[in-house]
Amino acid sequence: MLWSARSSLSTRAGKCSWTRLGSTSSVSVEPKSTSTMAFDPTSTLLATGGCDGAVRIWDIVRHYGTHHFRGSPGVVHLVAFHPDPARLLLFSSATDAAIRIWSLQGQSCLAVLTSHYSAVTSLTFSADGHTMLSSGRDKICIVWDLQSHQALRTVPVFESVEAAVLLPEELAPELGVKSTGLYFLTAGNQGILRVWEAASGQCVHAQQQLPGPGRELTYCTLVRSAGLLLSVTADHNLLLYEAHSLQLKKQFAGYSEEVLDVRFLGPKDSHIVVASNSPCLKVFELQTSACQILHGHTDIVLALDVFRKGWLFASCAKDQSIRVWRMNKAGEVTCVAQGSGHTHSVGTICCSRLKETFLVTGSQDCTVKLWPLSKALLSKSTAPESGPVVLQAQTTQRCHDKDINSVAVAPNDKLLATGSQDRTAKLWALPQCQLLGVFSGHRRGLWCVQFSPMDQVLATASADGTIKLWALQDFSCLKTFEGHDASVLKVAFVSRGTQLLSSGSDGLVKLWTIKNNECVRTLDAHQDKVWGLHCSQLDDRALTGASDSCVILWKDVTEEEQAEEQAKQEEQMIKQQELDNLLQEKRYLRALGLAISLDRPHTVLSVIQAIRRDPEASEKLEATVLRLRRDQKEALLRFCVTWNTNSRHCHEAQAVLGVLLRHEAPEELLAYEGVRASLEALLPYTERHFQRLSRTLQAATFLDFLWHNMKLPTLPAASSAL
Q: 215 forms bridges with which residues in the sheet?
């Protein structure tokens, strides 16, 4: 089994992927830092507020500054144009919490609105342009009359408001807008959207408060043409609502920081769930990358696991609790059960394998708990109307002397393995958690334990950088795999238990063959610790998540590579047969071109040797080489460098070089790709070959001289008697 990266979900801060991104124009804005900016309704003017208290207006089309307003104390953190471009009005607010109205036509300050006592966070205008709503961190919203520059109404909203939006003047019963008048929506540190009636100052609608930190809203805007409302949370998530009902339409996950665990979801592994350094879980649909953000935990989620059918999955967190979630056929996920009982962070969780009957959790309180699931949770049609079902632990067992980092349930649901920072793994009998044996041998704490799906074998991954396989019968170590440069954080059996997939603190994912202890593939795509590793039900895909905020989907390419290799071999055989036929027919030009296309120097050498065996070798070689294309001549020159290093093949190399040097102009030869490196490699061996030939010639000349100057004795005449 071999793997290749198929796709990735990257959530690094400040990193965006665009289909097309280009700069149309640039303006040199301010010598000092710019704190805010805004475009006018025509998108031809840009207003900027600086840290020096200045407000500047820039012409985007002609690239120059048109206005420079001074008078704001401190940093200008908010600028906004009036929606009517004919009025040429600009509004700004600085650290003094006052709102200044600037006239672009008169190049002066028309009015200063002073009713806020803290920073003004947003300005929004009515459709007719006569009314303005301002919000601030002083927990009030103010309605202004822009004709008289007076405050019409001050509405206390009892939260620090980051954005306020004036709603369209039309009825929306679902939002509590049942009469005509001015209504506005606020978003602030409570993390909910609320609708207010300006006339009475009453809140007529409020979203349901969800648990967990990071829910504070930092921005909100209304897209009137699309009828949508967009809000931004403090943990960089974008939430898109239907404007008339505040029904959630889409969610976009933002910065995830460290990814701590990942799992496939669905019966066909159509979704993935990601636990990052956050109390929220993110569920992505792989085909569309649509995201659903799940709230429930109040502290960072540490681990995940999925039941065999893929509809139910479980999570555990630092809030000392566990939760069970269910996904329906539409891909919507809800929390159906929760449990608490550990006295410290719950760092690992494992689901039963045969049936959806129980959960096992391990905690930093050194205990393991077994949680049975009721049959009501298994029905996909029932939904908990009164909230999640409360789970009760059936068995609690103190298993180790230090933190328990991993628990694993055997494929038959009868055994439990635990791995701890105390450097040992232990085997327990379920459901009573009776100790059966201890696996000792690692030099540092264990991060992961896994049962083999086929054999009675347990795999352990340790901070000592090794993976060990243990026999369940006698608790002996069968094999040790070494190759990671740091802690091995996760291990999983693949290929029906014949291979191992491991991930480590070195950012590497390694594929091991158990039979020969060989690492057959190292996948280097992450830049930090790979905490999450999970394989699909068919073992054809793998999922990894790391501290570099990336989730990468890997695909098994064994069959593709084997098919590709087989196709290459067949193609090579066909070309070799064609080459033999061309040489038999003495079609040297096509034979040489075919041999060069195979990129095999020895095959090209055999063609050159066949040409030189021809009675008219010199003319044939010259005619064939000169008719080659330039790229073929460049390849032939590279092959000559290889041949020239061997005294048996140097004659062919010198013959080809002789043809090129005699018939190619020096300018053309120098234009060949890599010709300088080739000449530098040819010169020393050529000099050596000529020195050898010189010595051979001297020896032959000396032998010839000796032969001609030797005086042989005259043979005696044969006896006449004989």
A: none
